[in-house]
Amino acid sequence: MTFPQLALFDLDGTLLDSAPDMLATVDAMRARRGMAGMAFEALRPQVSRGARAMIGAAFPEWGLAACEAAVPEFLDDYRRVLGRHGGPFEGVEAMLAELEAAGTRWGIVTNKPESLARALVPMLGWQDRCAVLLGGDTLPVRKPDPAPLLHAADALGIAPSACVYVGDDERDIAAARAAGMPSVVALWGYRPLDCDPAAWGGDVAVDAASALCDPSAWPPA
Fold first, then answer.
1. Active-site residue, 207 included
2. Residue of 10, 17, 77, 169 marked catalytic
3. Which pLDDT tens digit goes with each residue over 178-203?
C-alpha cells in the first residue's frame, strides 16, 4: 500500500481544531448584546457548517436573514482571535510528516474565506509545506461543488483519480465524489450528532488522524 500522490484536506474540523477560536468569536458577539457565553458543546457540532450555522446556534431566535446580516460582524471578531485558542488535531502533525516523508504532496481546500485560511497557515508552520490552498471564495463556487477540488489537482498537475480528499462534513464527501476523487471521512471532526457519516458515501471512514499515518488506511488512488 502507498499514500496517494496528492492528499487534499478540509481545514476546520479536519486538520484544525478551530472550535475554541469560534467559541471566542460568538462569545464576543453575545457579550456585545449583554448575553452570557455559549456552551462549547452547543457550538462545536456547527463549526464545519460555517459562519451562518454558528451564528444560528449562538442566536437561535434569529431568522436566516439576521444570521446572514451578522456574517461580517462574525468574521471581524474571528479575525481578532484567529489562531489564538485552536491548533491542529491530535495526530495531524505526525500524519503530515508521514505523507511528506513518502513524497506525497498535500494541500487544503476549505470553505473558509481564503484570506483567513492563508493567515492561519503560517501560524501553524505550514507555509512551506502546503502545496496548494483554496478558500471558499477563491472560485465563484465552493464545496459541495467539485470545482475547488478539481482546481487544486489541476494546479499541481495531478489527475483527480490520483488524489484523495479528507473531510469531516457531508459537503466534503459530496464534492470529492463529484470530482472523481476517493475520499476519507474524518470522524474526529465536528459533525452534528444527528448526522450519519456512513450515509455520505465516503470510501473509508477513520476515527483519528493518527490512523492515516498508515498508508493502508487510505483508499486506493
1. no
2. 10
3. 999 999 999 998 887 788 999 999 99
